[in-house]
Automatic annotation (TrEMBL):
Keyword flag Transmembrane: yes
Keywords, sorted A to Z: Membrane, Transmembrane, Transmembrane helix
SMART domains given in the database record: IPT (SM00429)
NCBIfam families in UniProt: choice_anch_U, IPTL_CTERM
Originating organism: Paenacidovorax monticola
Record field: transmembrane: 551-570
Pfam family membership, one: TIG
The protein's name in its UniProt record: IPT/TIG domain-containing protein
Keyword Membrane attributed: yes
Stretches assigned to the IPT/TIG domain: 108-190, 253-334
Length: 577
């Protein structure tokens, strides 16, 4: 039997001993398989053996009942009929004989496949048609529509460009001078298909999705977004269709972008804010392998954690969720420094201490109240804080303590406190009858404008007596405990209420001291104010007379000299005229 699609392979035929109908015995035909065939076109030679039975003639009959036409051969002829292969000798006797027969014919073209086999209905797709005996092809058609163009690349391949055609499968036809090869349903025309995202779109996942990426079209590579929050891909359209919008599936993989602050003290206990992605559901937070003291999941993008105690050095932060573990390497521990009070602690002072507040850590603002100064020495890097105190200066025999403060220089006409000292003794005895448990407070102010006024406040740990005044020592203007030349000599004199204003609770007094004037001990307008003073209860005359300060020795001597003169004047006024 001839193979219509590949006639160059061995095939089976029948060989008969006589021509059909010549009276030969029935069943005289025998099968014969060709062992070889020369290339076509040209004579094709078969070689085999056959035992003749009743005839001297040999006919070739193809087993295929449809005959050679259309099966790869035509114009079949026999070039040799053999010879007398049998003779009569006491009956017919036949002998085996080798023979050669030749068939001459022309092979038809054949088509075996097309690639690609699917394309757009609009045409324009270049495809390869595979087969045999394509040399000299004169036409290529798709479902009866001629190809837009074609090129015979070889005897076994044609390149053709598809024409526009209705949607559906079609037969490919290749026509040569020897015949036409057909490939049933060899190509299918389809309409354009736009890409569309599949069910994986929008579905949170901990790994890149691999299925249901596109409901139409062809899925491209799945990539992680730049901010690592989603997996992204595109569904490319088919047969000229449009690509889909970008498809995305939220990522459930956690990650940490920052830890703030980026370091903490080795003592632990500091709050750290972790910023990242997919942090909801967090089950554990560790710092350098040590579990956080505690943590709170504020949102899917933030965790607040409290650091554990940990040795100084770099420490990787890890956050564990049901979908994975996130790591952050930009964090570390530094050695904690505990605050410690310095030499100023416990040391009595008339002014707030400004140096030696802390031997370790950082000193805070010094508060002053109730007879003591207080400040804190704050630790560094999570270290502990120490609370420090120092008493005010002891200013009287009854345990009262005092401190001095001045406004900022800008609000005090430039005056600053250059010195404050609690003296151990009086520069001169107090006026007769005056009493005070306080010791003098010597103040020195500098930096102010010449002749201007400075403000100073003295604070006391216990209330000053209600009837006390603030007594100053030094020269004074006329009428302040002196007259005439005596005012130029140092003496005790009370400051008026306008220059010494006690607070309502009597726990402080604010002094207004004038350079070279009231309250200035050197009596000179030289940009420096210095003299002692203290609260004093002055002597009170019977009946509640206004207290009068005692005069100094020079004033008493002057009064002794003036007394006789005053008596003479009185006698003159009394003498009759």
């Amino acid at each position: 039997m001839v193979n219509a699609h590949n006639p160059d392979t061995p095939f089976t035929m029948q060989v008969c001993g006589s021509a059909p109908g010549d009276g030969a015995p029935a069943g005289d035909c025998q099968p014969f398989t060709a062992a070889a065939m020369a290339p076509s076109p040209g004579p094709t030679t078969f070689t085999g053996s056959y035992t003749a039975r009743a005839s001297s003639q040999v006919w070739v009959i193809f087993a295929d009942p449809s005959g050679p036409a259309g099966q790869g051969y035509r114009l079949v002829s026999r070039s040799s009929t053999g010879g007398h292969l049998c003779r009569e000798y006491m009956g017919w006797r036949c002998y085996a004989q080798s023979w050669v027969m030749q068939l001459q014919g022309t092979l038809l073209p054949s088509a075996t496949g097309a690639s690609p086999a699917v394309g757009m209905a609009s045409g324009g797709l270049s495809i390869n048609i595979e087969g045999a005996r394509f040399t000299g092809a004169t036409a290529v058609a798709f479902g009866g529509t001629p190809a837009a163009s074609f090129q015979v690349e070889s005897d076994t391949r044609i390149t053709a460009v598809t024409p526009a055609h209705a949607v559906g499968p079609v037969t490919i036809e290749v026509t040569t001078p020897e015949g036409t090869a057909t490939l049933d349903a060899g190509f299918t025309f389809v309409a354009p298909i736009d890409g569309a995202c599949g069910n994986a779109q929008g579905q949170p996942t901990a790994a890149a999705p691999t299925t249901q990426l596109c409901s139409a079209g062809q899925a491209g590579s799945v990539l992680m977004s730049g901010d690592r929050t989603a997996y992204l891909w595109t569904c490319t359209g088919l047969y000229g269709g449009n690509a889909s919008p970008q498809c995305a599936a939220p990522s459930l993989l956690p990650f940490i972008t920052s830890a703030g602050p980026a370091s903490a003290g080795s003592n632990g206990g500091e709050r750290i804010t972790l910023i990242g992605h997919a942090l909801d559901g967090t089950t554990a937070v560790t710092f350098g392998g040590v579990a956080a003291a505690r943590f709170t999941v504020d949102s899917a993008t933030q965790i607040t954690a409290t650091t554990p105690a940990h040795a100084a050095g770099a420490a990787t932060v890890e956050v564990t969720t049901p979908h994975g573990t996130a790591q952050h390497t930009g964090f570390g521990f530094v050695q904690s420094v505990n605050g410690a009070c310095g030499a100023a602690a416990g040391q009595a002072s008339i002014t707030a201490p400004a140096t030696q507040l802390c031997s370790a850590g950082t000193g805070g603002r010094v508060a002053s109240a109730g007879g003591a100064y207080a400040w804190a020495c704050e630790g560094a890097h999570g270290g502990t804080t120490s609370q420090c105190t120092a008493p005010w200066a002891d200013t009287d025999s009854e345990g009262t303590r005092a401190s001095v403060s001045v406004p900022d220089a800008a609000a005090n006409q430039g005056w600053t406190l250059a010195g404050a000292l609690v003296q151990s003794s009086l520069p001169m005895p107090l006026p007769q009858g005056a009493r005070s448990a306080f010791t003098p407070l010597s103040l020195t102010l500098e930096g102010g404008q010449t002749g201007s006024r400075a403000s100073v406040t003295v604070h006391y740990s216990q209330p000053v007596p209600r009837d006390a005044v603030y007594l100053k020592f030094g020269p004074s203007p006329e009428g302040h405990g002196c007259t005439g030349a005596a005012c130029a000599r140092p003496h005790w004199y009370p400051l008026p209420a306008s220059a010494a204003a006690f607070s309502a609770d009597r726990l402080s007094v604010t002094l207004q001291l004038t350079d070279g004037g009231l309250g200035d001990g050197d009596g000179s307008a030289n940009g420096r104010i210095a003299d002692p003073g203290l609260p004093v209860v002055l002597a009170t005359a019977p009946g509640g007379a206004v207290p009068v300060p005692a005069l100094g020795p020079w004033a008493l001597a002057l009064l002794a000299l003036l007394a006789p003169l005053a008596g003479v004047a009185a006698r003159r006024r009394l003498a009759p005229r």
